[in-house]
């Protein structure tokens, strides 16, 4: 006996994403992210207080990787300069490259990965808004941190204010340290390279890239250890939200694309002409009444058999 599917349970094949719809979406989200960072500057004193509070928490937990890493990068230019290039550029190069690779070579996984990234980015923006945080490099020098990007600014395009191009530091929010999306996005890249890369080299890169990024953000005094931990947590929450978000979008898309119910028509209906039915041999409704005449009653002889009916003998 052939097996049939219950109506409404068929799984529709999703069309492959198109680059001309994906690119504007990603640019829009990144634009909102950048604009949100600028709008969520917060007051400087509050941001400094939050940064010092993080240092106190780390001291209580006996965590202090930032100071030794920062001293190492400050003392050894052969480490500090590449670290500054790493911080200033790879954040904006590797993540789009992984997105393009997924789109072209791992299309079945692209939509889930893209949704994960965008959801996490918006969560990070909420963190910047609610908790503006001064990075270690902007604290008072008495706290022992050196801004390596300012120290080695002559080697790169960035200035002493931020990782932005020289002279454009005022266009960035320098108090968006919590969470570290440098670490969060690097973790996203690493997980996908490990899971979908398929070669030993991509698996190694999937481990090395987020680990080195975490070391770089602390060694350059751009983030605290807890900023990096928060970046990992944000990516975890974004990963949990990705599937529900995709289901919600699918339901909305199905509702919007559902065709309207066709208008009711009389075609094929047995009820015509104000409820009068036709019978065999009749061409128009009420033919029977016209043949019977107004005086005919229910006991009148049957003369309504139609034009082809035989006439009774007289």
TrEMBL record:
It comes from the Bacteria. The keyword Cell cycle does not apply. Residues 53-241 form the Inositolphosphotransferase Aur1/Ipt1 domain. It is a multi-pass membrane protein. Residues 260-314 are annotated as: Disordered. The chain crosses the membrane at residues 85-103, 115-133, 175-194, 201-222, 228-249. Signal peptide: none annotated. Residues 293-314 have a biased composition (Low complexity). Keywords: Membrane, Transmembrane, Transmembrane helix. It is found in: Membrane. Residues 266-280 have a biased composition (Polar residues). It holds the Pfam family PAP2_3. This is Phosphatase PAP2 family protein. The lineage of its organism: Bacteria, Bacillati, Actinomycetota, Actinomycetes, Kitasatosporales.
């Amino acid at each position: 006996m052939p097996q049939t599917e219950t109506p409404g349970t068929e799984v529709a094949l999703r069309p492959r994403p198109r680059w001309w719809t994906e690119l504007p979406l990603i640019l829009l989200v990144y634009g909102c992210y950048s604009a949100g960072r600028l709008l969520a500057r917060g007051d400087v004193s509050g941001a400094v207080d939050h940064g010092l509070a993080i240092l106190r928490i780390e001291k209580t937990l006996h965590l202090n990787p930032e100071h030794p890493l920062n001293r190492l990068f400050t003392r050894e230019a052969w480490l500090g300069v590449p670290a500054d290039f790493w911080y200033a550029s790879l954040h904006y190069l590797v993540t789009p490259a992984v997105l393009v690779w997924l789109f072209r070579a791992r299309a079945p996984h692209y939509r889930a990965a893209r949704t994960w990234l965008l959801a996490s980015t918006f969560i990070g923006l909420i963190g910047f808004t609610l908790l503006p945080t001064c990075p270690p490099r902007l604290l008072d020098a008495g706290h022992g941190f050196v801004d390596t990007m300012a120290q080695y600014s002559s080697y790169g395009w960035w200035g002493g204010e931020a990782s932005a191009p020289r002279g454009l530091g005022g266009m960035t929010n320098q108090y968006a340290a919590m969470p570290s999306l440098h670490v969060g996005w690097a973790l996203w890249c690493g997980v996908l390279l490990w899971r979908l890369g398929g070669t030993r080299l991509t698996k190694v890169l999937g481990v090395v890239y987020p680990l080195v990024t975490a070391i770089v953000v602390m060694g350059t005094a751009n983030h605290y250890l807890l900023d990096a931990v928060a970046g990992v947590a944000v990516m975890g929450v974004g990963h949990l939200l990705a599937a529900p978000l995709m289901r919600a979008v699918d339901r909305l898309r199905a509702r919007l694309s559902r065709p309207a119910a066709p208008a009711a028509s009389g075609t094929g209906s047995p009820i015509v002409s104000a409820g009068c039915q036709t019978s065999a041999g009749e061409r128009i409704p009420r033919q029977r009444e016209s043949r019977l005449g107004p005086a005919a009653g229910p006991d009148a002889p049957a003369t309504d058999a139609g034009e082809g009916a035989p006439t009774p003998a007289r």
